[in-house]
Amino acid sequence: MGLLDGRIVLVNGGSQGVGAAVARAAVREGAVVAVTGRRPEPGEALVAELTAAGGKGMFVRADLADAGQARGAVAEVVSAYGRIDCLVNSAGLTSRGTLLDTTPELFDAHVAINLRGPFFAMQAAVADMVARREPGTIVNIITSSAHAGQPFLAPYVAAKAGLAGLTRNAAHAHRWDRIRINGLNIGWTATEGEDATQRAFHGAGDDWREQAAERLPMGKLGRPEEIADFVVFLLSERSGVVTGSVIDWDQNVLGGLD
Predict the structure, then answer these.
(1) 156: number of CA atoms within 13 Å, CB side?
(2) Residue positions annotated with a catalytic role
(3) What is the mean pLDDT of the chain?
(4) What's phi and psi for 45, nearest 5 deg?
(5) How far apart are CA 12 and CA 26, in angstroms?
(6) pLDDT tens digits, residue range 110-155?
(7) Of 1, 69, 125, 175, which shows the fewest CB atoms inside 10 Å?
(8) Distance between CA 162 and CA 115 in Å, rounded?
């Protein structure tokens, strides 16, 4: 449909999982897509895949835990293409910790990747948009756990809840600049990262996805490509004037009780 024709899109954490799905969907809709990641191999492989399919893009090696690299990734995109139109913050850390056993180091790691990185990436992207006096769109991938979450997600919830608040604050601050900023509270999703987490922290076997699906209302986990389609919609003009919305993209209903 060409929803993002000619747009310059940066997807942080775009080399796998939800981020990679967003990159593929954005290219299909006509965007030029840059993706960031800490490891060059999957990022460069994704860009090669997108290019082979007729798309355009680039890989930027960056560790979003470093504020300088978060800003620098935006600077590289602007240097390469002259501007940035859209930003998606999809990078995330999901390592486990409760209120009682979380160390300062683990807490700081969650804040660095799940909150500080998106903050400074948004800072750099919005600065470019404002300097050019042009509109833009940003989508932050958050989590339904930001409402409360499981006890073993304490530092993750703290950082992601901060990102939800930041999304609303930045949207309010820059609405007169015509920069729309929204977030998605995604639920349990079948990604490479979630597979690694389930195996490392919960002793999951090869059939964990099937077992999980049996416990979910829709009989399946969320799929990255479904989330990606919704992200593209929010990035595009099809979502109209919507800004400052943090949308629950999940099959469990907040506040619903059986």
Answers:
(1) 18
(2) 156
(3) 94
(4) -65, -40
(5) 13
(6) 999 999 999 999 999 999 999 999 999 999 999 999 999 999 999 9
(7) 1
(8) 7
What was the pLDDT predicted at 247? 96
Nearest to 136 by CA among 230, 27, 243: 243
Q: Which of 110, 111, 23, 36 is nearest to 70 (CA)?
A: 36
Q: How far apart are CA 22 and CA 92, in angstroms?
A: 15
In the structure, how many helices (H) and strands (E) does the chain have?
9, 7
Average pLDDT over residues 194-208: 80
On the CB side of 178, how many CA atoms lie within 13 Å of its CA?
11
- Centre a 10 Å sphere on the Cβ of residue 234 and count the other Cβ atoms it contains: 22
* pLDDT on residue 186: 92
> What residue has token string 């990035």?
235
Q: Provide the strand spans (E) within 77-186.
A: 86-89, 136-141, 179-186
Q: Which residues on neighbouring strands pair with residue 20, listed in sequence order? A: none
Q: Per-residue pLDDT tens for 223-246?
A: 899 999 999 999 999 999 999 999
| Tokens, residue 91 | 């990078």
Can you give the pLDDT at residue 57? 94
Are 108 and 115 contacting, i.e. CB atoms less than 8 angstroms apart? no
Q: Determine what percent of the chain falls in helix, strand and coil, rounding each to the nearest 5.
A: 50, 15, 35
Q: How far is CA 5 from the centre of its chain?
A: 21
Distance CA 69, CA 255 (A): 39
Count of beta carbons in the 10 Å neighbourhood of residue 197 = 16
* Separation CA 27–CA 40 (nearest Å): 20
Element (H, E) at 219: none
> Which H or E run contains 58?
strand 56-61
